[in-house]
Amino acid sequence: MMNTLMICGLVLLISITTSKVLYKFGVPILLIFIVLGMLFGSDGIVGIYFANYNLTNEICSIALVLIMFYGGFGTNWKVAKPSLKPALLMSTGGVIITTLLTGTFAYFILKVSILEGLLIGAVVSSTDAASVFAILRSQKLNLEGSLASLLEVESGSNDPTAYMITISILTIMSSGAVNGIILIIIKQIIFGVLIGVILAKIAVFVLRNVDFEIRGFDSIFITAIAILAYAVSEWLGGNGYLSVYLAGVIIGNSKIPHKKNLFYYFDGVSWIMQIALFFLLGLLAFPSKFPQVIGISIAISIFLIFIARPAATFLILKPFGYSTREKLFVSWVGLRGAASLVFAIYAMTYGVKIENDIFHIIFFVALFSVAIQGTLIPKLAKKLDLVDNSSPVLKTFNDYTGEMSSKLIELNITKESKWVNKIIMDADIPNEILIVMIKRNDEIIIPKGASIIKEGDILVLSGEGIENLEVV
Question: Which of 54, 112, 131, 158 is most open to solvent, judged by the fewest CB atoms within 10 Å of its CB?
Fold first, then answer.
């Protein structure tokens, strides 16, 4: 027990210290933690033997659930709306095209069976935008136009599609028949959507009407909702990852109390989950097996980077007016990351016969993708002139981490105000505006999400753009 705690503490300390240094040079976070895991693994310096795919599958599934929930929670659909259609087409049609092209390539060129080729294609079809934005933030780069919105929504919503295709192929491999696949897909979608929406609506209702007397219980409550969304959906035959992502989107875009604190909480949880996930995946890998898969892995990586991803990107984005420069960049930043590795482990534990070492193949593909594509992203963004220099820091959609303005203004609420007689959380107040206090007659009121704004109130406001705020 003591040795385990020492190792955990040492891993966290080394991870944070190392990533702090390398992060500034644009080295992807995923690569840092995976390499550390390999150094601690059976073929590494520390030599911890770990080969439990089932345990890794359980832990990584929970980690991916919380990471995906945070991805949905941080997506502002009002900002993302202009890019919504192409992003969703990329996350569905793009995944299907990538699966089919990669599967066909693996079958004809690499001589694997057609089902195993399609399985490899499905597993690597999702992308990891978290790594992309982490790299851009480390270099203080912001993308121009709607590229950030497109990449954020695509990546957040393509994991459920990749998972659904992976499950379908594994089912065919297990039963040997295609019968019932359509029903499985329909159940995945219907229950995935229903469970996510229902639990999210319940969560929003509870958060708005129940006063959690103990500080932090609202965070625990939402964490439970995220895990429950996945578990119930999977139990009913639905797509658990779709449920989790939808729940995150709905809750994150609803007016709920303490949203800023919740954002900080899930940001921290997401980082812990990523560290645990990437380190554990690195620990599970055996670098001594790389020579056996390096040929097929590099072939798949090059095909994905230069043929499959560009083909899907140019075909889908053609009707939406994106320039060639933008389509080239979207093609390049299709990094393979955590979801692909988790789905590979899922395939390993499903109970079907797989001829090739799919985990180490996908592991090497992810390493190759992050190391080559990831490190060149900042240079490519500058080369293609896609950097927005007017914004010094890249922000996600529902980003509550920006500094609040130190300037305060007082705002009189008249009967014509659109905020009058509304509770604060329903008043459609921009996220970047903070109500510091409410002056009502001779009374000073500390505002809460359920506080009612009344005629004659004087609101003390702080935040960005308060001078241009319109409330009439």
Answer: 54
Question: How far is it, in rounded angstroms, from Cα 219 to Cα 307?
Answer: 43
Residues 6+ apart with CB under 8 A from 469: 411, 430, 433, 461
Domains of the chain: 1-388 (1.20.1530.20), 409-468 (3.30.70.1450)
Contacts of 69 (CB under 8 A, 6+ apart): 226, 229, 244, 245, 247, 248, 266
Rounded distance, CA 128 to CA 134, Å?
A: 11
Token pair in block for residue 178 = 């295609």
Alpha-carbon span 468 to 461, nearest angstrom: 12
Question: pTM of the full predicted structure?
Answer: 0.81
- Alpha-carbon span 62 to 280, nearest angstrom: 13
Instruction: Convert the pLDDT of each residue in 153-184 to its tens digit.
Output: 888 889 999 999 999 999 999 887 777 788 98
**Residue 462: beta bridge partners?**
408, 434
* Section 323-346 average pLDDT: 92
For residue 400, what pLDDT band results from cuts at 50, 70 and 90? very low
Task: Check residue 396 and give its pLDDT.
Answer: 46
